[in-house]
Amino acid sequence: MDFLHRADIVTGNTQIVETTIDALRSATFLDGREKFWTTARVEEQTFADHTDGPAPDFLFHFGFCGSTFLAKALDQTGACLALKEPQCLTDIASQQAVLVQQGVQARLAEGLSFALVEMSTTSSEETILIKPSNWVNGLLPLLARRPDAGRAVFLSMKLRSYLRATFRGGRDRLAFCSRLASLIAHEISDGPDRLEEAIAMSTDPLDQAANIVAFLHAAQTALFDDAIAQGQWRNVIQFDYSEIVEDPQAAITRAAETLNLPAESAEGDQLANRHAKDERRSFSHDARSEQDNEVERFHAKRFDAVEKWAATLELSVVSPPANA
Fold first, then answer.
1. Sheet holding 2-8, edge to edge
2. How far, in Å, CA of 269 to CA of 23, rounded?
3. How far apart (Å, rounded) are the C-alpha atoms in residues 138 and 192?
4. DSSP secondary structure string, 22-36?
């Protein structure tokens, strides 16, 4: 079967790969980190000709907050196919600012619709649930306002937990957050200036990193709040990462009900004991808590200061133009 893997809506080129439902289901991520296809080809598309089709459901998230675990738990053969972080949506999110600056928002909307239609028809027998990368959160104003928006689960995380998770991930994770903050800032009113102000508050690299993470958290919170309030979702729910930690099965059940999925979901307790990104590895919340405690020992005062500053942040989302 064909699957849309890459999408360049500036040039019209797409990469179509040959794969199977089983390969899509078993891949931890569909962003190219692992090969889930046999062959690939490039095709030029006229996006405006392929924008009608069923709407997929979504699992949006902040990152580092249990979304991969939840997506795997909701994936049920015969009922739901969870597409985890498809690269084509990340590609489109990366091109969003350029297309808006060029004044071709209609092309952005057409490319996004094309990708959603292509993925929503991946399986004719199962609900399609897309868990985009959090890189895609900048597209939420467009996704939420689509007249055919499906169902949506929004998974967020309190700022302190988000700070611990990003610093626990070290330099690579902090660098990712910095790049994402720069991207998403364009979807926030005066976002680039506000981000520059956050960085300029300190000359200490770790303080700057914490300020960037706090800005990113606030920006994603604003995008989530806007998408939930303005969205045309058939059904929507938001909950916090702590709910997954405290009762995995209850979180799975609540999400499944929102997505109109059968109650027979995977056993949350069993999944919770395996590492979501590598099921060959075990996972322990006690060990994770100890890692978080270690991060706190080093950064508690820094986190206290950035939380105090973040409480003063009031960010608003730039609404998409009517022709988008």
1. 2-8, 13-18, 39-44
2. 25
3. 13
4. HHHHH-S-SSSSS--
- Residue 63's nearest CA partner among 83, 84, 80, 82 is 84
First to last CA, the chain: 31
Report the C-alpha gap between 200 and 209 in whole angstroms.
11
| Dihedrals phi, psi of 186, to nearest 5 degrees | -70, -15
Q: What is the pTM of this model?
A: 0.93
Tell me if 9 sits within 8 A of 111, measured CB to CB: yes
- Separation between Cα atoms, residue 282 and residue 104, nearest integer Å: 47
For residue 317, report the phi and psi dihedrals to the nearest 5 degrees. -85, 140
Cα gap 150→129, rounded to integer Å? 10
* Per-position pLDDT tens, the chain of length 324: 999 999 999 899 999 999 999 999 999 999 999 999 999 999 999 887 766 777 899 999 999 999 999 999 999 999 999 999 999 999 999 999 888 888 888 889 899 999 999 999 999 889 999 999 999 999 999 999 988 889 999 999 999 999 999 999 999 999 999 999 999 999 999 999 999 999 999 999 999 999 999 999 999 999 999 999 999 999 999 999 999 999 999 999 999 999 999 876 555 555 555 545 555 556 677 888 899 999 999 999 999 999 999 999 999 999 887 656
- In this structure, the chain runs to a length of 324
Enter the tokens of residue 18: 């040959």
